[in-house]
Design goal:
The structure is a homodimer. By secondary structure, the first copy, chain A, is of the alpha+beta class. Chain A is built from 9 helices and 12 strands. In chain A, α2 runs antiparallel to α3, α3 runs antiparallel to α4 and α8 packs across α9. In chain A, 58% of the residues are buried. At the A-B interface, β3, α4, β4, α5 and α7 of A face β3, α4, β4, α5 and α7 of B.
Chain lengths: 333, 333
Amino acid sequence: MKNAAVTLFIFISTFFFGQKKYVMVIHGGAGTITREAMTQEKENAYKAKLTEALKAGYKEFTYGKTSVEAVAAAIVILEDSPLFNAGKGAVFTSDEKNELDASIMSGKNKSAGAIAGVHTIKNPIKAAIAVMEKSEHVMLSGEGAEKFAKLQGLEIVDPKYFWTKERWDGLQKVKKKEAQNPTKISQNNLPASYEIDQKFGTVGAVALDRKGNIAAGTSTGGMTNKKYGRIGDAPIIGAGTYANTQVGISGTGWGEFFIRATAARTVAAKMEYLNKDLKTAAQETIDEIEKMGGDGGLIALDKDGNIAMPFNTAGMYRGAVSENGEIEVEIYK
Amino acid sequence: MKNAAVTLFIFISTFFFGQKKYVMVIHGGAGTITREAMTQEKENAYKAKLTEALKAGYKEFTYGKTSVEAVAAAIVILEDSPLFNAGKGAVFTSDEKNELDASIMSGKNKSAGAIAGVHTIKNPIKAAIAVMEKSEHVMLSGEGAEKFAKLQGLEIVDPKYFWTKERWDGLQKVKKKEAQNPTKISQNNLPASYEIDQKFGTVGAVALDRKGNIAAGTSTGGMTNKKYGRIGDAPIIGAGTYANTQVGISGTGWGEFFIRATAARTVAAKMEYLNKDLKTAAQETIDEIEKMGGDGGLIALDKDGNIAMPFNTAGMYRGAVSENGEIEVEIYK
């Protein structure tokens, strides 16, 4: 009866205000994704997996679960797929390892968890959530983080689990290019753009539960050929992930710029302090990153169920589900 | 002649506006520092070292050097002293190691560098600066960061260099207490406060050079008895360190709260978006951290040479130097 009333209310609100209320938004990475370079088969595979992730997240809500649980359910699907640069499909470091980062933030009390530089945790997002819920810390790294995850009963895998042919070939391609053109690069002397597979495919989700709590999560394998234990924006609260009572954000793209722009926090700050609407705040932040020389995209979901998914790359794997279970999935601009 | 004109201008401005212009502000950590627990000898030692750091930073300016160089000069003095929880005086992890974090941000172009979880780099702030200036990345961690620092010609030391009796005794004390009272703690179940030496002594500096560029840097050994490769706020851009063209900030305190509050970025965002003055923005941020249950302090310096040094602990080692070289150093409220 209560459910029927809720459905009726949703129907009436949608009818009168014409505004769809979303409960979850996800991304599977932004990059040089063009129709020309894509086969129909590959496109279908990506769309199917994004849909599966949205359904998994939405299902949690129908069980009355929290936004943190919905984010976890969606991200685990993407981590377990070789299609995305997170979990199973993580890219290789220069040392031929798969080095994973992830983070989560719950808007209600601004609690947060993150892990960086792990090689054996099957689902990094679960480890980030365990850090948030079961430790006094926000961020754990390397072997210590793996030890913690094991103690928490999370699934530990042989590092070989993360080996995929596509990512291995990607590393060889980047290394070959690097050997041919060993330019010294720094923050003040950057290439105009990177190889598509160098910083592509981070996954993320933002969800809004029935109690109005927003959670945002991000998971990644980082950049192909990354060196020296590089940590990108994905595990950095305020850069790749942020949530408060008003909005949640997950970023994907050239991580160094997302850190320097404190991207996720900037979206929230523009809303909190300047009263900007979600779409404006999100777009302005991507514009600022572009102005700095960076690229990428982000997804954001506010407390009223509005979404924004701006990006300045050719494409971004993305999708959203409304409160009545309607799913939208897109790839190109 | 030009210098004389500048001096005259400073004199006139100070005379007419009565406002002292600061060029650098530093901190050596916030915590339960009370007059009762302090000896005169110890107080003198802290004040002398803070003064030495301010002089070293100021000296760089007299040579026309940049704010980044001034921050480095001041922080190196503090890192090389066993008095502060950074470099030589770093606290011990649960695994009986000294695990160092540091970061730097230059406001002009928002370039940034950070290192986390290193054991052999004598001056972590120098490594953070090398990451900013010589790499394409913002954040490096663990052995990878050490490898990078070595390649950059930075001084590498035996991990034993960081052993000090005081920190070792501090770890034993905390471990003993932990064994007696093994309470399960998490972000939602935190002790009212930590042992003084568990999260105390992070150092930082913010400087404003003649060209108007602001740089902020932070360096720390983290929390005594930290586990699982814990990373605090010090190496997180937007949490422990932030700078833009308007203001620079370095934080010190209970790192987990500084991350969740995106403390340094929040000070800057309140100024950028709400037009709050430096003192208000800085104080409000510390108030927010207190409300969340955290404690600590921060230093901030704006483009006009105003400073703020709010903290909600009993004391904070802190000091500032004005453009004409006047030095102020304080410990208590």
